[in-house]
């Protein structure tokens, strides 16, 4: 076994987050969409290379108790933390091992899914080659691998800033000292460039602000090698190992119809997938990609217009221009309605089609928390337009669905989420999120979809009591006790509130907001 005793991450505040785009449900769904036949995640063998302290793998193990998972990492401190969390949560189907990629070269195990998140850009060339080799060697014939990496197109400013950070810290030896010095340099840079109107200064300022607020990335900048890929370079790494690219995990990023209008005509002429991805990355200044890959022998179908989507579930963040209750007649073909994408209202589509108005309103009203099956969409939409048959609705929806997926209006999944759609008298937070809320200074939890949700100090205290055993009055009293112990405080007009009755009212108001937030963020269980 290779030497793993040197651990540059030991003692650092390096967080291990869930990454939704690497979730086996997503890999399974997109693999099927493009013609592959991957294993059902529920009983799959899953490997994560570079698992850190298990923030990504533990939610997967919880969702699929019949699956078998292995996480490896070169950092002994991160593996110890992962093992501790898995043990305290009571997981029996996941193993965390302190190993290097070279330790797996002679492994006889094979996996249905291999996850390599945010690693290949931050290791040396030998380890990078070992990772790609392992994707070939350890992936089952129908297996799917996920690899994410930094992209050349969007990293010119980031690389410039990294070089300055490395120079500014090169005389220091200890990583904590380097981090402290790097933060001081970033603070200086932010302050110096904040008012500048120079376009280059503005780009450096934005990059410095993002880096200053991201301890993980700053650690990587200081510790790891850094390799940014052009897509053709990534593609070549796959090709020489008889692997192939399937898709990006964020489908809208690879759809040429989403290209800026002034370059759309030129990009639409491209037919080679490498050219399409390369140009899309360049024109959108893409800085990070999450790619799905598989063995070259798998028959991948680029034309997905005829794909069978009938068994899938749909989730969406569609915003309605006109509230549902204000629509009296979906059959009115003269009324054109608009739909937008949360959270910033981006995009925008209009339709006067009675069928699509009924379908989009059905999705917006029913798929914000738990995904809704395509069959349910058709059933509910048919009630809004009784003059149109279900067969007509299904035919039109099937024709339009691929476009909605690739433009980002809806997302697809193969599995139902069972989050609560109401706030009960005795609210219950997803037990993983409740566990995470108790951990130190972490200000994030994982929701039932496997997505990261950032929370405030109030939620860190409130969530721990939302186990389905306590009513709201009891939870308010528990939080009040924490306020009395000065674990948290409340203020108004810049002044700390000290009156007990006012504190209790603040807690009551905050709790209602937190419960609504937990409901919207898919954190409450029935």
From TrEMBL:
Domain Methyltransferase regulatory residue range list: 220-295
PKMT C-terminal winged helix domain: residues covered: 425-523
Superkingdom classification of source: Bacteria
CDD domains listed in its UniProt record: AdoMet_MTases
Methyltransferase domain segment(s): 46-143
Pfam family, one: Methyltransf_25
Name of the protein this chain belongs to: Methyltransferase domain-containing protein
Species: Candidatus Phycorickettsia trachydisci
């Amino acid at each position: 076994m290779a030497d793993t005793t040197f651990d540059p991450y030991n003692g650092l505040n390096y967080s291990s987050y869930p990454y939704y785009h690497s979730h086996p449900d997503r890999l399974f769904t997109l693999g099927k969409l493009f013609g592959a036949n991957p294993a059902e995640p529920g009983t799959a063998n899953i490997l994560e290379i570079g698992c850190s302290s298990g923030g990504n793998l533990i939610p997967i193990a919880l969702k699929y108790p019949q699956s078998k998972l292995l996480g490896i990492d070169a950092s002994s401190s991160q593996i110890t933390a992962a093992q501790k969390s898995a043990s305290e949560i009571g997981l029996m189907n996941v193993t965390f091992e302190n190993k290097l990629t070279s330790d797996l070269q002679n492994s006889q195990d094979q996996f249905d899914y291999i996850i390599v998140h945010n690693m290949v850009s931050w290791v040396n060339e030998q380890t990078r080659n070992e990772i790609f080799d392992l994707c070939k060697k350890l992936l089952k014939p129908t297996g799917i691998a996920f690899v994410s990496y930094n992209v050349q197109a969007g990293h010119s400013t980031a690389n410039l800033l990294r070089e300055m950070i490395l120079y500014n810290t090169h005389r220091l030896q200890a990583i904590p000292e380097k981090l402290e010095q790097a933060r001081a340099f970033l603070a200086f840079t932010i302050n110096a460039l904040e008012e500048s109107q120079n376009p280059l200064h503005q780009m450096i300022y934005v990059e410095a602000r993002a880096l200053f607020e991201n301890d993980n990335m700053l650690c990587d900048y200081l510790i790891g090698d850094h390799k940014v890929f052009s897509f053709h370079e990534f593609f070549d790494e796959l090709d020489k190992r008889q692997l192939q690219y399937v898709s990006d995990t964020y489908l809208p990023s690879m759809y040429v119809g989403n290209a800026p209008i002034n370059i759309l005509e030129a990009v639409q002429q491209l037919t080679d997938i490498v050219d399409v991805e390369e140009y899309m990355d360049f024109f959108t200044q893409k800085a990070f990609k999450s790619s799905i890959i598989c063995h070259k022998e798998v028959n991948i179908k680029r034309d997905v217009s005829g794909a069978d989507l009938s068994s899938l579930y749909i989730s969406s963040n569609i915003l309605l221009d006109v509230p549902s209750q204000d629509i009296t007649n979906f059959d009115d073909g003269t009324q054109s309605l608009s739909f937008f994408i949360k959270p910033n209202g981006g995009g925008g589509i209009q339709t006067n089609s009675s069928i699509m108005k009924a379908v989009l309103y059905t999705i917006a009203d029913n798929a914000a928390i738990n995904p809704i099956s395509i069959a349910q969409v058709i059933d509910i939409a048919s009630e809004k337009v009784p003059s149109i048959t279900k067969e007509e609705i299904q035919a039109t929806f099937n024709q339009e669905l691929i476009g909605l997926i690739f433009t980002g209006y809806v997302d697809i999944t193969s599995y139902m989420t069972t989050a609560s759609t109401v706030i009960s008298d005795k609210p219950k937070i997803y037990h993983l999120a409740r566990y995470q809320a108790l951990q130190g200074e972490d200000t994030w939890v994982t929701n039932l979809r496997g997505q990261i949700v950032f929370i405030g100090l109030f939620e860190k205290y409130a969530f721990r009591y939302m186990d389905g055993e306590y009513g709201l009055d009891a939870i308010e009293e528990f939080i009040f006790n924490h306020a009395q112990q000065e674990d948290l405080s409340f203020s108004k007009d810049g002044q700390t509130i000290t009156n007990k009755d006012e504190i209790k009212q603040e807690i009551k108001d905050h709790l209602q907001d937190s419960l609504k937030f937990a409901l919207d963020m898919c954190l409450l269980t029935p």
